[in-house]
């Protein structure tokens, strides 16, 4: 009866035994509600977190989310449940309002009931698993009363199960009890006859929740409590979508607008899917997936409320939307739009359409190229599988116990891609397929969830982050201070000190809204300023002007119009506003689909025509003269998909691209595998390809490249090129390319290139097919510092904290310095001085926008450069204090030179058509040359200053077929793809290559091996046939040549592939050495060799790799010395001894 009494008292009351609050529908908490906005604007980057109870009572403002969460626990509960808010510690959902306010709602979480399945109770025994078990228990007890009679008692139900309590859909409660009555026939003690009495069995489920104050809710299908929740409100993190303005992200990066540390971690990229994680130190919008602060690239979802709708991005940023009619439009200026489609929502982005279900969960993503991803969720609403249209998938597995909403691993086709561990709900580590592990640190005791650093896969600390007393990032750096930034916050803005000590001040404005925007960036060069349309006139607060450090302004205007009945948003950008060079770019975007319709740059317009799936079917470029060039795209349609065995099995896949040629068919087509390979469905054997994998690419000449097989992750394993040559690919466990094998005629002739990686994923070594290799070494900040070749020669870089190369040192295998170069950079990261090995400097100075303004050589001679308002080099004045050689360049609005005036003040002029092709070149040297073009932009004719016109012909691949002249003897023709009769077996791999050239002097024919190398060249001149043959090493380097008279020249190479010896063998004769013993400077020129007659030639170079001397060992032999002035000009070329001793007379 006590059990029944609890439910008869609905609604209200506290269950004293369980301590679980059942229903609270009317409750007034005794607290003072203070009407204070959580978003009072201040220019200092200092977010405020305000706490509210589920009844809307205000409980203070806090500097960090963690502090606000602690404040939730201090909210007093009602009488009998004073500690109830102690259990409100899990993020349920996050919403973002149109104004940019983020509301993060907390609750007690959702857990399975202890008795999720029916449990059966008798009068004496509880928790039996089945009805039969309960019956057996009753019979056992009855028979035990008269054991002398044996097991003779029986039990018969008198009716069906009758609900005694629950469920209560009107209260969203799903707990329930049912009773069934049985007649029991029990034996008398003397075992003579039976007597009857009634007994009952109670079955119950969802009555025992693991957490205090929770009940099993029908709406959640779990134990939860939606009566006692709390909300934290703060200005949402928004990533500014304005093109031309600053994002405010600096360094590793940190956000100067909010003080957040932001981190991107890529776990894997399979080509068809990329999986990355994102960390925000400031605002956590979920407790699930990877724990507070972390999100992932496929976790985007809609935040749906009755009066608003927002988007929480996979990268953790929020996008507010405003309701416009029946649709919603993003307030960040991106043009993104959300529309209702039955029970789903569609997000229209410029590159894809995302579909969400009624709960706001991502259901699918379809991109313009027809590729798509489908998303599935488990019974608890967690993302469990992501599947491509080809049927490949990645599976997400979740942790157990308290971390059940945290992702434990991601795998594909049974192969583990990444596994995750947690500590106190925080992401602790990720382990990859190769066993490499990245570890995440949270060492700031003040802020337990603030990421303070990362240890990379090599076991070394890679990065360190620090925060001030209100949780804002004040330092972010890689090991040793590399790439570091320090941030200081004040009411004047955020001051950022970079790795070189340079300071930049970021000032902010709110433009009438909540989220801050950058209004100015000031550094040692000056100020870049931004203005925005106020929210009162443009709810998107879009960029209005940008003024650079030279005072040159770019103006942005926006308008709405219609084109062909379609609502269109027009964005006009005027660069170099008010200057003669002013340039106007206008972009028209369909408001409903957020797809670009046209882009106009002054007189040139590019337009896009789209199909019903919003894929581009026609790209048209129209010149200011009204001429058009078009690219047409076709896609797999329903009729193609319905064709059994066809090459177009998935709706929307690209089928063909028809080029701009109007005189010839220049179409490229694509075929796809129509079904899965054997073994894919059963999982037995190799699954060589999936339905929809690209099978063939067929160019306009009908030449086919075919992918023969793919691995389980969707990467190409084997492909055959147009010549039938097979290439195999293998991959590192983490998906990086590991080797490429181009097959020879036999396996011994295969050419294999291999790549090795450091645990961090940086390339460690590349080995060529001949065994030569280059090894790459990095510092602890993972920046390249050394390159070593097969012979042990080393190229070493000395880096500053910003990664600039201060020194380059080239050393031989013994460590002897052979070449050096040094640089100095200013605090803006600009090259200030570059010096050669002798410390002769060249200095550089820049204008306020960073354009190179002044070059001063080692003699102190200045070269002045001036740039026009669009940043293009307009004037060069060489030797400012001397000859003052001036060159001027004028441009059109598409950055093409119109006029070049040289130091003699002679003009070279250019005229263009609307497509950017040169129509006329007027030069004092060559006179007037004019050009015409075909519909693809290929040069059709060229008429020189003599009036002689050459005419060009092209094949469907736009390769030159012929050049014709008025004098036909000068005509030239080219033949491709066709193997010539002079080519021997094994020399017939001609497709895609020049096979024959013919002009008035004769013909030249080319034969190729399977690796694309010319192995035979046959020249026929005046009826005489001359044959040259070539042979190559496995590394593709020339090994020998056979001349027309049969003479063979051979080349001997060292381990690095450099020629060390050259021999000659006359036909029928013995080999003679032409030279031997050739040596080389590391990563440089040859140091000398020995001729076949024993004479040696030594080539001495200085540490700038300029020749100092060339000396023959023989008395009276060649001996030349070179001298250079401090700017590198040759000043002396005399016998070596004179140059070395008497440079002063050589200048």
From TrEMBL:
Q: Which UniProt keywords apply?
A: Membrane, Repeat, Transmembrane, Transmembrane helix
Query: Keyword Membrane: yes or no?
Result: yes
Return the InterPro entries for the record: DUF6531, RHS_repeat, T6SS_VgrG/RHS, TEN-like_YD-shell, YD
Gene3D superfamilies in the cross-refs: RHS repeat-associated core
Ranges where the DUF6531 domain occurs? 251-321
Has keyword Repeat?
yes
Residue spans crossing the bilayer:
21-42
One Pfam family named in its UniProt record: RHS_repeat
Domain of life, per the record? Bacteria
User: Where in this chain does the record put each Teneurin-like YD-shell domain?
Assistant: 341-429, 801-977
**UniProt cross-references to PANTHER family, sorted A to Z:** PROTEIN RHSA-RELATED, PTHR32305
Q: Per its record, how is this protein called by name?
A: DUF6531 domain-containing protein
What is the source species? Xanthomonas arboricola pv. pruni
């Amino acid at each position: 009866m006590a059990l029944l009494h609890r439910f008869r008292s609905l609604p209200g009351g506290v269950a004293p035994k369980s301590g679980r609050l059942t229903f609270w529908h009317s409750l007034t908490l005794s607290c003072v509600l203070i009407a204070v906005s959580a978003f009072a604007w201040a220019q200092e980057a200092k977010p405020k977190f305000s706490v509210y109870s589920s009844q809307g009572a205000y409980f203070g403002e806090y500097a960090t989310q963690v502090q606000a969460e602690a404040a939730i626990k201090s909210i007093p509960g009602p009488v009998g449940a004073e500690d109830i808010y102690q259990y409100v510690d899990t993020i349920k959902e996050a919403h973002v309002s149109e104004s940019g306010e983020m509301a993060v709602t907390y609750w007690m979480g959702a857990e399975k009931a202890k008795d999720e399945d029916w449990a059966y109770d008798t009068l004496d025994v509880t928790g039996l698993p089945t009805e039969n078990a309960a019956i057996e228990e009753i019979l056992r007890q009855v028979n035990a009363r008269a054991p002398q009679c044996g097991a003779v008692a029986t039990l018969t139900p008198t009716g069906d199960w009758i609900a005694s309590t629950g469920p209560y859909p009107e209260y969203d409660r799903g707990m329930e009890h049912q009773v069934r009555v049985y007649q029991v026939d029990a034996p008398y003690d003397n075992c003579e006859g039976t007597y009857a009495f009634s007994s009952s069995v109670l079955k119950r489920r969802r009555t025992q929740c693991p957490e205090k104050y929770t009940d099993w809710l029908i709406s959640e299908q779990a134990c939860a409590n939606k009566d006692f929740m709390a909300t934290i409100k703060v200005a949402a993190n928004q990533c500014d979508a304005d093109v031309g303005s600053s994002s405010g992200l600096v360094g590793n990066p940190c956000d100067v607008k909010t003080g957040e540390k932001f981190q991107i971690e890529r776990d894997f990229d399979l080509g068809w899917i990329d999986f990355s994680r994102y960390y925000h130190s400031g605002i956590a919008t979920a407790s699930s997936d990877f724990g507070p602060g972390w999100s992932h690239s496929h976790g985007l979802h809609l935040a749906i409320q009755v009066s608003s709708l927002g988007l929480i991005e996979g990268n953790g940023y929020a996008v507010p939307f405003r309701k416009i009619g029946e649709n919603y439009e993003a307030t960040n200026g991106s043009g993104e739009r959300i529309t209702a489609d039955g029970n789903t929502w569609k997000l229209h982005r410029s590159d894809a359409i995302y579909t969400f279900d009624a709960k706001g969960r991502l259901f699918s993503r379809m991109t313009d190229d027809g590729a798509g991803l489908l998303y599935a969720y488990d019974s608890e609403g967690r993302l469990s599988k992501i599947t491509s249209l080809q049927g490949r998938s990645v599976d997400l597995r979740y942790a157990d116990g308290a971390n059940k909403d945290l992702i434990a691993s991601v795998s594909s086709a049974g192969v583990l891609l990444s596994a995750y561990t947690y500590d106190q709900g925080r992401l602790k580590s990720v382990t990859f397929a190769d066993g490499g592990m990245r570890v995440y640190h949270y060492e700031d005791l003040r802020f337990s969830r603030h990421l303070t650093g990362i240890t990379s896969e090599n076991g070394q600390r890679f990065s360190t982050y620090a925060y001030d007393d209100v949780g804002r990032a004040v330092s972010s750096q890689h090991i040793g201070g590399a790439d570091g930034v320090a941030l200081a916050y004040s009411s004047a803005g955020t001051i950022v000190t970079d790795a070189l000590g340079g300071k930049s001040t970021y000032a902010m404005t709110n433009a009438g809204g909540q989220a801050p925007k950058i209004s100015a960036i000031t550094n040692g060069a000056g100020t870049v300023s931004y203005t925005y349309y106020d929210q009162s006139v443009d709810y998107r607060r879009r960029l209005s002007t940008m003024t650079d450090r030279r005072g040159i302004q770019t103006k942005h205007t926006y308008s709405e119009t219609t084109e062909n009945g379609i609502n269109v948003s027009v964005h006009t950008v005027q660069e170099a506003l008010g200057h003669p060079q002013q340039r106007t770019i206008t972009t028209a975007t369909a408001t409903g689909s957020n797809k670009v319709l046209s882009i106009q740059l002054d007189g040139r317009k590019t337009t896009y025509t789209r199909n019903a799936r919003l894929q581009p079917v026609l790209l048209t470029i129209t010149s200011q003269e009204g001429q058009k060039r078009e690219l047409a795209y076709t896609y797999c349609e329903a009729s193609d998909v319905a064709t059994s065995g066809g090459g177009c099995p998935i709706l929307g896949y690209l089928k063909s691209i028809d080029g701009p040629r109007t005189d010839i068919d220049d179409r490229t087509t694509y075929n796809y595998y129509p079904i899965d390979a054997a073994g894919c469905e059963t999982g037995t054997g190799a699954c060589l390809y999936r339905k929809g994998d690209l099978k063939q690419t067929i160019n306009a000449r009908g030449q086919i490249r075919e992918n023969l097989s793919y691995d389980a992750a969707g990467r190409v394993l084997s492909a055959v090129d147009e010549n039938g040559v097979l290439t195999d690919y293998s991959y590192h466990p983490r998906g990086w390319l590991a080797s490429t094998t181009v097959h020879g005629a036999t396996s011994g002739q295969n050419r294999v290139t291999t790549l090795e990686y450091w645990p961090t994923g940086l390339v460690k070594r590349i080995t060529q097919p001949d065994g030569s290799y280059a090894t790459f070494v990095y510092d602890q900040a993972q920046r390249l510092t050394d390159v070593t070749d097969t012979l042990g020669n080393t190229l070493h870089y000395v880096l500053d904290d910003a990664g600039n190369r201060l020194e380059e040192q080239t050393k031989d295998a013994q460590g002897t310095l052979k070449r050096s170069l040094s640089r100095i950079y200013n605090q803006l990261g600009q090259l200030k001085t570059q010096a050669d090995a002798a410390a002769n400097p060249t200095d550089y100075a820049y204008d306020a926008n960073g354009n190179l303004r002044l070059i001063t050589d080692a003699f102190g001679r200045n070269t002045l450069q001036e740039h026009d308002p669009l940043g293009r080099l307009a004037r060069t004045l060489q030797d400012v204090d001397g000859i003052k050689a001036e060159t001027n360049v004028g441009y059109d609005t598409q950055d093409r030179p119109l006029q070049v005036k040289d130091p003699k003040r002679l003009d070279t002029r250019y005229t263009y058509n609307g497509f950017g092709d040169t129509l006329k070149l007027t030069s004092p040297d060559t006179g007037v040359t004019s050009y015409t073009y075909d519909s693809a932009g290929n040069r059709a004719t060229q008429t020189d200053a003599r009036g002689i016109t050459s005419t060009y012909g092209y094949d469907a691949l736009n390769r030159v077929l012929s050049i014709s002249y008025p004098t036909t003897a000068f005509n030239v023709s080219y033949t491709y793809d066709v193997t010539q009769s002079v080519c021997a077996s094994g020399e017939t791999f001609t497709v895609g290559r020049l096979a024959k050239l013919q002009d008035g002097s004769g013909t030249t024919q080319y034969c190729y091996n399977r690796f694309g190398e010319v192995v035979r060249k046959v020249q026929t001149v005046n009826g005489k046939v001359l044959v040259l043959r070539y042979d190559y090493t496995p590394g593709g380097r020339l090994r020998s040549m056979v001349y027309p008279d049969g003479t063979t020249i051979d080349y001997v190479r060292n381990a690095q592939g450099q020629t060390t010896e050259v021999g000659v063998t006359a036909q029928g004769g013995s080999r003679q050495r032409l030279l031997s013993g050739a040596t080389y400077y590391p990563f440089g020129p040859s140091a000398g060799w020995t001729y076949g007659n024993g004479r040696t030639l030594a080539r001495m170079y200085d540490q700038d790799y300029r020749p100092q001397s060339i000396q023959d060992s023989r008395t009276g032999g060649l001996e030349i010395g070179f001298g250079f002035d401090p700017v590198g000009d040759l000043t002396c070329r005399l016998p070596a001894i004179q140059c070395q001793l008497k440079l002063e007379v050589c200048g």
